[in-house]
């Protein structure tokens, strides 16, 4: 059975109101996307420590999946009225019936981090004679495909020491905490501000048969770790400097990513009172900064 895809252009103020109205009007599913996705203006938005949870792209597209016989034009009029805005720019296209599960799965292949470390979706066979992180795309940020996640995984692959304690701050899917455990780390904790990240991280840890604990910030243990890794974004990393310094033991190591190359000097300078840091790798314009606690 075919469906209709309705795409409505909206600003950040009205996108959620339109989305809620479309659900009420019978849409099968509704999502909000970046109107500039795929261009140089594309802007990543992640729920990360130190950043607001509720935020949308300034220019968004509300995408609704409708039944074949739905009156899409009438739904746009009704949704706009509910949101209190003039009739927005929109388009409607036909969506043919497909095996959505197979289509989605075909877009995610195993990712090689190193000779021995792979990220492998559960529908693929594990790579022989390798450490496979079983991870499927989900609600939380961090499937291993982003350059910053890859940079952190590569560092962990070469640097994790047997039995050392690890804190993954801004854990998202839990991928870095899980990798650390598979690579031999001892007690490992993950922290994130998003409840969905907690759910995803715990499920992923169980799926990989590792023991790691995940906390919202207020519930996180007040202790230090041998290794602290934070793959977030530059602005949250600025605000989190005192907290991350308090969680890294003297002589312990810190790994930061989510930082553009041109932002590296600023972060290194800001962390200089507590850490000796340097850029240790770059990938697609993103850098990894690593070093030790003074």
Helix/sheet category: alpha/beta
The N- and C-terminal alpha carbons lie at a distance of: 63 Å
Number of strands: 14
How would you characterize the largest beta sheet? 7 strands, mixed
DSSP strand content:
25-35%
Overall form: elongated
Mean pLDDT, nearest integer? 88
Gyration radius, in Å: 21 Å
SSE succession: EHEEHEHEEEHEHEHEEHEHEE
Oligomeric form of this entry? single chain
State the helicity in percent bands.
Answer: 25-40%
Helices, by number, come to 8
Low-confidence stretches: 45-54
Strands of the widest sheet, in order across it, are 10-9-8-11-12-14-13
Structural account:
- With about 290 residues, this protein is α/β, with parallel strands linked by helices.
- Helix content is about 30%, strand content about 30%.
- It contains 8 helices and 14 strands.
- It has helices at about 15-25, 70-85, 100-105, 145-160, 175-180, 195-205, 235-245, 265-270; strands spanning about 5-10, 30-35, 60-65, 90-95, 110, 115-120, 130-135, 165-170, 190, 215, 225-230, 250-260, 275-285, 285-294.
- Strands 10-9-8-11-12-14-13 form a 7-stranded mixed β-sheet, with helices on both faces.
- A hairpin with a 4-residue loop joins strand 5 (about 110) and strand 6 (about 115-120).
- Helix 1 (about 15-25) crosses helix 2 and helix 4 packs parallel to helix 5.
- The longest helix is centred in the last third of the chain and has 14 residues, at about 235-245.
- The N and C termini lie far apart (about 65 Å).
- The relative contact order is 0.12.
